[in-house]
């Protein structure tokens, strides 16, 4: 049997956050904040986050069902970090992600592009990542 070497499907989610890029960047990367926004639905939470934001640095966020039925660690290693502009990383399974932060006056456009995994439908993954990004937007806009 030959192993197929197909290029992963690239998926993009985005949000316009009503906050300056410096605040958006800080909220995206501070572990205390990550634990408050990094979940796709209200029955999940992120009880733990660590982040070494530099090229070669690693990050890990524990995502868990609030009822304790399931949890997993989401993590990877940074390959590019340009403060207030770009974050790129490779997930532990080898997939790549790029997040671009674009200042637009007092708002920031966040565009996240990731390689889809092959176990779940692409639409499901896009909805999940978009839900997390929407939570990020809501949380960031709610803090002073």
From TrEMBL:
Signal peptide: none annotated. The lineage of its organism: Bacteria, Pseudomonadati, Bacteroidota, Cytophagia, Cytophagales. This is Activator of Hsp90 ATPase 1 family protein. Residues 18-140 form the Activator of Hsp90 ATPase homologue 1/2-like C-terminal domain. It comes from the Bacteria. Belongs to the AHA1 family. It comes from Sporocytophaga myxococcoides.
